[in-house]
Each structure stands twice: as C-alpha cells, then as structure tokens.
Amino acid sequence: MTKSTPDIRLNPIKIKNQKFIKLSFPMTDGMKKLVKTLPEVKWSKELECIFIPNSYKSIQNVFTTFKGIAWVDTKMVFQSNSKEELSKKEVDSYETLYKKIKAQYPNTLKIGQYNLLHWLKS
After folding, report:
1. Is the confidence at residue 112, as pLDDT, over 50?
2. pTM of the prediction?
3. Engineered SS bond to 58: which of 27, 52, 104, 119, CB 3.0-4.6 Å?
C-alpha cells in the first residue's frame, strides 16, 4: 500500500539551553513553502535543521497549517527518555493542547502506543 500523505516529524531539541522543536519533512517545494509560513520558524546552521519554539501555539500552528496535507508525528515531543520536570503550567498547557488536537484532528495525531496524558503523569 502506498502512502498518500507525507509525514512531518516533530522532535524536541535544545539550542543554547532553550527548548525548541525540530521539523523533519520531505523537502519538496510545496512542503518548504508551507513550513516557511509557520510563525517563528528558523534554520539552525549548527544543527542543520529547521525548528520552531517548543510551545502550545507552535504545535497547534503545525497542525493547522498541514491539516489534510500531511501527517504530523508528535511521538517524540510527547514521549522522551530524557524528559525533564514540567511545571504545572506546562503540564496544563500540553494537556489542553492534546485534547484540542485530538478533537480537531482525530485521524492526524500519530503518537503510536503512547498517550500524552499518560506521559505527563508518569
């Protein structure tokens, strides 16, 4: 079976001790044009990658921009072996984000067998 939509993988990274999200996607002209429309999208020369702030709004913007165009794989953002302690505000904001994304994009969210709410509470 041939895949009909591309994937965009979101991976947590740190640059100068600040949290960001690396975007990995097929480098087609259409995908590059859409990525460039994301607010605060940047290129890291050192890491040779495109990244966005690690925030509720940034992740929501990716889902909104690529709705119906690409699968957004958030597994690595929400499941990490080296996860750090999150503040109550961060936990609440990610729980809210997860619920909104799941409601708005039930067939787009790909986090495999891992559940964000389980990850946040572990």
Report:
1. no
2. 0.65
3. 52
